[in-house]
Design goal:
The structure holds 2 protein chains of 2 kinds. By secondary structure, chain A is an all-beta fold. Chain A contains no helices and 11 strands. In chain A, a hairpin with a 6-residue loop joins strand 9 and strand 10. Chain B is mainly β. Chain B is built from no helices and 12 strands. Classes of the chains: A mainly beta, B mainly beta. At the A-B interface, strand 5, strand 9 and strand 10 of A face strand 5, strand 6 and strand 10 of B.
Amino acid sequence: DVKVTQSSRYLVKRTGEKVFLECVQDMDHENMFWYRQDPGLGLRLIYFSYDVKMKEKGDIPEGYSVSREKKERFSLILESASTNQTSMYLCASSSLSYEQYFGPGTRLTVT
Amino acid sequence: AQSVTQPDIHITVSEGASLELRCNYSYGATPYLFWYVQSPGQGLQLLLKYFSGDTLVQGIKGFEAEFKRSQSSFNLRKPSVHWSDAAEYFCAVGGSTLGRLYFGRGTQLTVWP
């Protein structure tokens, strides 16, 4: 069974803080993804990675960066958190078959 | 441009009634199509997928979907809805760009007892 884990289910941070969201998958998948989910807007892709140290911008990369130093781990970084980054963050991974497996999500609140 | 449209934001059905959730897509290559379900506070779970072959695909929890290329549609159906099916449903399309999927905005399903 594919397992995608995210470091926290709930996180509260202050405006201006640097925030790290971690995602780990255990199926040796090539591709990993970070989405944010907001009511009425569905899933919006922030960044994705198709190999170690490789990354591609998604639709809303502004204010975010990512790191993939090992195949199983994909980190999302908010360099200076702002209130408009309060959201649910979902990580996913996939092999070459395109079928994405999702983690449980991290609900981030920035105050 | 690649996109997915789920025309119904919210659907309410009675338990035991049939269900159809609509999905239309725009994609420049041969599409791979997916339906996911999300229970409150959870991640997304794959219900079913279409890559090729038989256009009627069966998934988990008694769901099925039919791919209609001429209509660019991939509608999700269930003959008899259970209260536990209440959740948000997402349609997605992919197939070319480095494993990326394009998601619709979701349809929230409410089930009345």
